[in-house]
Amino acid sequence: MVDIATRVWNHKWKIDPIVRSLIDTDFYKLLMCQSVFRNKPDTNVTFSLINRTKSVRLADLVDEGELREQLDHVRSLSLSRGESTWMRGNTFYGKRSMFSPEFMDWFEQLRLPPYHLEKRDGQYELTFEGKWPEVMLWEIPALAILMELRSRAVLTEMGRFELQVLYARAMTKLWEKVEKLRPLEDLRVADFGTRRRHSFLWQDWCVRAMQEGLGTRFTGTSNCLIAKNRDLEAIGTNAHELPMVYAALAGDDAALARAPYDVLSDWHDEHDGNLRIILPDTYGTQGFLDNAPDWLAGWTGIRVDSGDPATGAERAIDWWKSRGEDPMDKLVIFSDGLDADKIVALHNQFRGRTKVSFGWGTMLTNDFKGLTEGDTLAPFSLVCKAVEANGQPTVKLSDNPNKAMGPEAEIERYKRVFGVGDQERVEVVV
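and the corresponding structure tokens:
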């Protein structure tokens, strides 16, 4: 087993680059990339880094030269022969050859496009512009790099024994969470923690701990490189990025109202089974479900990713019943701000009413909260979002207005088109 504390002490990043591969990313990004490659390949987009936790002044913590070096390293990466073979020949969600030969031929030649980096008011302004299929693949590496460079900036001040104790405490903290989950016999939980992980080595350790501690109840990881290396299921479906860009491309209010369903219509043509998971909260879950076409009720499940998770699950159950579907045949995936206690509570509340699964993110792969003086390693909320498509701004409303993004006038327009009224604000921690 890798001695993480010693590797950190040695500070030799060239043997530990933050991003080691183009498939050191989330599985949903590759699935969405193929869909975009097929349906919207010539759309021009801009992605931008957004630090929701303004108190963490990244530009004061992270050296610009180190950041550029890591970003430039990612631009040098290409798909290896073994990675290509894994994608072309592996079985994902019961389907062989999930990725088409045309997409793979393109991906094998890909190098990520340039980036633009500036400092402003203690934060980094990091943007990526270009064709959607290329630019979208920057999101996860950019987040992983900033998160780990922040960790390294804190850790570089620590002595060798202090690092050993820190990681011992973090390992104990995670294992105590695993022990809380062990009594849940029919639990299904996966690692969703790539984007805001403490480090690649730490995420890999967390995955192996979950494998040993939970056995088959640990269903896999969203990280494709770790899934490949550890012979695990790669887990993921789709994300807010798709409806946000489709909506920005809509020509009028009527087209805007159809956009979230157009996304899923395209997805429906490509995937079946457990890949048919609805993410309804981009422009408000209730309005999305109220206006959804009947064919969507036949999909496998719903992912709850903002607002109160129990309320989201109740909405899904009521909607399925209203459409003549049996909730016990459906799947609710919880994925927002989870930790062990919340997983236990939600599992106990909804077991026997619907199938339940959990995508456990930041608090699995980056919970160093309370382990350093001044809480300098506490997780924080960093995202990298599509902010523009073909010159038009993107908008996200969410079920939590604290996660809303976009120009104020466009937010109000979207709220009107999608019938979003007052919403409860929930603190965004991760």
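(Above: one complete record from the training split.) Residues 198 and 366 are 5 Å apart (CA to CA).
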